[in-house]
Write a structure and sequence with these properties.
80% of the residues lie in helices and 0% in strands. The chain is mainly α.
C-alpha cells in the first residue's frame, strides 16, 4: 500500500473517531433533565444503550478489519499450499468471533438498561 494512501486512511480514521467523540459529547450535553420523562428511554438508561451501540459497532468494525487481513493472508497461503485450507478457515473464524463478543456485550448491556 502506498504511503500516501496509508496516511490518508489514518487521517480518515482520526476524523471518524473525532466525529464519534463529538457526537458523544453532544448526546451527553443535550440529554434531558432527570425530572423529565422521555418516550422510549427511561431515566438513565441512555448510557447503557449508547454503550451497547458503541460495543456492537466497534466490534463489527474490528472484525471487518481482522477478516480483511486474515482472509487475504489465508487466500495467499492457500494459493501456494492448498492443504492449509482448514487452518485458514479457523483463523478467519477466530477473527469473526470478535463481532460475536461485541454482540454479546451489547445484549448484556441492553438487558441491564
Amino acid at each position: 500500500m502506498p504511503v500516501w494512501l496509508r496516511r490518508g486512511l489514518h487521517a480518515f480514521n482520526a476524523l471518524i473517531a473525532l466525529a464519534a467523540v463529538a457526537l458523544l459529547v453532544c448526546a451527553v450535553v443535550a440529554s434531558p433533565a432527570q425530572g423529565t420523562a422521555t418516550p422510549g428511554v427511561a431515566g438513565g438508561n441512555w448510557a447503557a444503550l449508547l454503550g451497547a451501540a458503541i460495543a456492537v459497532a466497534g466490534s463489527a468494525i474490528g472484525a471487518g478489519i481482522a477478516v480483511a487481513y486474515t482472509g487475504a493472508a489465508a487466500l495467499a497461503a492457500m494459493s501456494e499450499r492448498p492443504e492449509l485450507f482448514g487452518r485458514a478457515i479457523v483463523i478467519v473464524g477466530l477473527a469473526e468471533g470478535i463481532a460475536i463478543y461485541g454482540l454479546v456485550i451489547g445484549i448484556i448491556l441492553i438487558g441491564r438498561a
